[in-house]
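Q: How do we represent a protein-ligand complex in a form that can be generated token by token?
A: Start from the inputs.
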Amino acid sequence: MLNREKSQPIFDRALKVLVNGVSSNFRYLGEKETPVIVRGEGARIWDADGNEFIDYRLGWGPIIIGHADHRVNHAVIKHLENGTTFAATTELEVIVAEKLVKIVPGMEKLRFTNTGTEATMHALRTARGYTNKEKFIKFEGQYHGAHDYVLFSTASSPISAMGARTSPIPVQVGSGIPHKIRDYVYCLPFNDFEAIEKCVKDHHGEVAAMLVEPCLGNIAGIEPKSGYLSHLRSLCNEYNIVLIFDEVKTGFRLANGGAREAYGVIPDISTYAKSLGNGLPVAAFGGKTKVMDVIGGGSVTHAGTFGANGVSMAAANAVLDILSDSPVLKDLAERGKRLKTGLDNVLTDAGIPHQMCGHPNIQGFLITDKPVKEVRDLVYSNDVLYETIMQNMYNRGIWAESDPREPWFLCAAHTDEIIDDTLNKFQESVKTALQ
Ligand SMILES: Cc1ncc(COP(=O)(O)O)c(C=O)c1O
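Then emit the structure tokens for the protein with pyridoxal-5'-phosphate bound:
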């Protein structure tokens, strides 16, 4: 157990004033276990007791350059002097939008928001407004934020409640969501060519959108089968359905142009957040002009007091420059491969059956001998052993999520030395877990 002499009294205070002591359900790890972080720099973070961790959670993805990157910080601090929010267009907002249109393949027009949740909510509304249809398709195990329409069959839903593959049941995530909203969603297994084709053929007259994480950013980074995303693209073309890529985790992480570039498929709309601000709250949704132009006063509503505020725009502007000026994400992928190969070797040497998943920049592994292509395959995963290994890692100062569904994120500050250190500790942690 790590020292919690200073962290625990702070968390005890947190429990009195914040529900469960946290500002997001997923951050709560227990009354005596939830960490209290005071600082981050590069690929490392420190808790209130001075315990140091190499960070593979990276705030669940936003940190792409590194914690407290001085270039991003400097840009934000400098811009603060100009003020932040004017309820009006700013030149900086135009500059950032121009950069996005240049960097993201097929991006024509966009709008800024502050969170991924807002981005997917508005993207869905835009698709409904464009097609004049109301239902949408999402995929089991995918998470698209905390608004009601998308809180069905996410990564945290019990697989046992999802029904048969041929007749999947949308599983509502928690209380507080009106039952009738379930009527607006079809939840399907990912990577299943026939299931999606059947659903579209049966229901296309009512389906406005297909909302998809191009790779499973909330299920160990599982990638699409070859041809799967183009299959979705052609079904959407044929049946007048808006294809929405939720790139909140993949955008500015897989490649500068996100999953569109990495997998070579252009959706009608994409949503972005996380890496776009390297930890500052900024998000966007955008795509084809003909679809996006349905937004406007009296037609489709998109609004937000803080959209494109100066802090977000200064951060995004700096991040886009850093990503464009040198091959940050390509270099990152090389180190991601080093990590992936190393983890794979340790598990193989230890005789642990496993499946390596994901793109090097957002990767994971599952402890199972069965191939994994979608969330239902996780029923075979040995989550207890995974969690034990990750707890051993945490005690040795390496923090990756203890839940195998959440991928390992890398940032530009994860050097070869940091990765080698991680692999040494991983080897020890696996050995200890098997004793
Ligand atoms: C793929 C995806 N979409 C949307 C969201 C929601 O983003 P936010 O937490 O910024 O609202 C998340 C959050 O993790 C996500 O992983």
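The chain has three domains: 1-34, 40-68+328-434, 70-325. The pocket of pyridoxal-5'-phosphate is lined by residues 60, 115-117, 120, 143-145, 213, 217-218, 246, 248-249, 273 (CB under 6 Å).
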